[in-house]
Fold this sequence. Notes:
Helices cover about 0% and strands about 50% of the residues. It is mostly beta strands. The chain has one domain (about 5-105): Rieske [2Fe-2S] iron-sulphur domain (Rieske Iron-sulfur Protein). FE2/S2 (inorganic) cluster binds near residues 47, 48, 69, 71 and 85.
Amino acid sequence: xxxxxxxxxxxxxxxxxxxxxxxxxxxxxxxxxxxxxxxxxxxxxxxxxxxxxxxxxxxxxxxxxxxxxxxxxxxxxxxxxxxxxxxxxxxxxxxxxxxxxxxxxxx
Length: 107
Ligand code: FES
């Protein structure tokens, strides 16, 4: 878990709406972009071993869908929004500095 802001990717890695799996202090992190807004969640689904970065981005509802059992999580706060996921994942603060995407402490 990052305790201070760490660089995880470049803005140019996410030129439009999309997601990528990143690493912050050894932790798997999901970074998502919708328009000019960036989000970061724990990279692992809270249900089982789904890697959220391999899931689907739902831009209209600001959610990520887990690739394993199709559980949904709100990108803004990490809350589980569709079963079988029923436990939130951690949401992190995101900061953009130049071309760097930085992920910080829990939001
Ligand atoms: S592992 Fe993500 S919903 Fe089951």
